[in-house]
Write a structure and sequence with these properties.
With about 240 residues, this protein is an alpha+beta fold. The protein is built from 3 helices and 6 strands; from the N terminus they run αααββββββ. The chain folds into 3 domains: about 80 residues; about 70 residues; about 70 residues, Thrombin, subunit H. The longest helix has about 80 residues. Keywords: Signal.
Length: about 240
Amino acid sequence: MQHSAQIITRIVGAWLLALVMPCAAQSGTGEKEREIRMLKRELSKTKAQYTVLARDLAASKKREAELRKSVNDLRLRFAALGDNLLNGGEEATLEAVKNAEVLDKRNRATEKAALELMANMREYLRTAVVADPDARVRLESSIRELDAALGLRQKPRPQMPQGSLQHAKVISIDAESGMLVINAGEEQSVRRGMTFSIMRGNRKLAEAIVAETRKDFSGVLPTELETPEDQIRTGDIASVNTVQR
């Protein structure tokens, strides 16, 4: 009887063990599946964050490039107006305006006095008896020269030959800023930011960019010299680059 009970106990134990093992296996498999799903969710979040960061970085770099270009454009425009505007700021600008006003008042006063002097001298020569005819000739010549000098303000500006995009001439060079003035402007379709090659014959001297434009002339700034020893001179030719930067 005792032997039979032992056999029954063993059979029941084996049966219970058979029931427990699949449950344990199923529990372990379920845990792994949960971990895999969790890892997949974390991976998806990480990918989404990476995409956002990459987009923000690209936008930030684009904005930085735009700001850098704007700063460079402003520096070129200020440089075209004179180096002092960059170094001295608003105070330098106001000082320049004040100096210009003082000079203008002085010139007007000088012009008024000279005109009165000429009128008085002509009246004097008309009525005076001059013993030395050569002195009278020299005096009249001086009056005519002064008259011509004062008349420059009323004379129209001399017409300079106009250039073109392909063949514009350097007509002056600003010693302080290095800006080149060329005889082609808005009427010849010159626009701010255009790049030109400065040539002498068939030899390229420099690259230059347009900083300021007016109706019939423009200011360009050299950006790259082919040979630093070979300086640009008046009379050199500026030709627009067919491929703009």
